[in-house]
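user:
I keep going back and forth on a fold encoding question. Separate attempts, laid side by side, tell us more than any discussion would. Would you put together a sequence-and-structure record for a protein of your own picking? Write it directly below this note and I will take it from there.

assistant:
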Amino acid sequence: MFTSPQWTYKTQLKDFGKPPEIVNLHWISRWIDKPSFFSSLPSELPVVWSLHDMNPLTGGCHHALDCDQFTNHCCNCPSLKKSGKRDRAWKNFELKAKLYQHINLHFVGNSTWTTQQAQKSALGKYARSIRTIHLGIDTNDYQPIDPSIAKAALRVNPNDFAIAFACADLSDKNKNLSVLLEAIDELAKHYSITLILFGSGQIPALNNQITTLNLGRLSSPHLQSLAYSAADIFVMPSQIESFGLTALESMACGTPVLAFRTGGIPDVVIHGETGWLADEVGSAQSLYQGLHWMVKHSQERSHFGKAARERVEQKFTADLMANSYINLYQELVKK
């Protein structure tokens, strides 16, 4: 995904009514025109930018993957069909540098990894502070449901090993559903499998030997909790994740997580305690090894699930996140 700082509709601070003491930005691509908005900000007004991907740190891409040009100056962008020394990424990077210089900017990464990317980026030098505040969820909304009840409610065969996968767009290549399916195809040679899918978008052709339950988009946390609780394992095979919110939701429901060791996921999932982290990112074989271990070690899997819920309660609640932001706001207002 590649987006530019400019947007169709010009935006100014006055459009939002009463002048604020702090501005907190989140994901604003294709919503706020940065040149007009940043130019309208008083120079000392604190601007907290919560980073949910790398777009504020690059010339346009939302995840740089193997490209490290953002650490110096974006150009010859691999995300563009027409790239070069003075391509769109170069121009966007130049524009962002000019805009960032004139605002009281503070970057907040949602994970250790995201914060590190901000520190590496040549645009990070314009931020007056860079820190990490983890995302949090409401543990009253996401909580364990008895697996036997959840499986019965969704008509999941209790004798099958149930694997859950979820994301906003099931066809998103970064989410690597195809890699998971390849791993499950191998696992299905030895075990009876039910695959629980929820999210929007098209899914690829599936193995007829695998029972598939496609729940579509689930907007209710209770229904999501039901789906997570019906699974023996939740798999997040993404190529890159800045944090891994669905992993957190699954853990809150007492379902351990299998994921690649990439991006911000290791902040959430602790290998051998709350789930399994596969080291070879993008490898179906590496994913299969984790799945196979989980099938064979049901007692350990149960312990992982309980530890996962405890970890969320201790480290990743909405209250903890809110208090961290309140402390940051108070710190910035006093300056």
In short: The two ends are 37 Å apart (CA to CA). The mean pLDDT is 96.
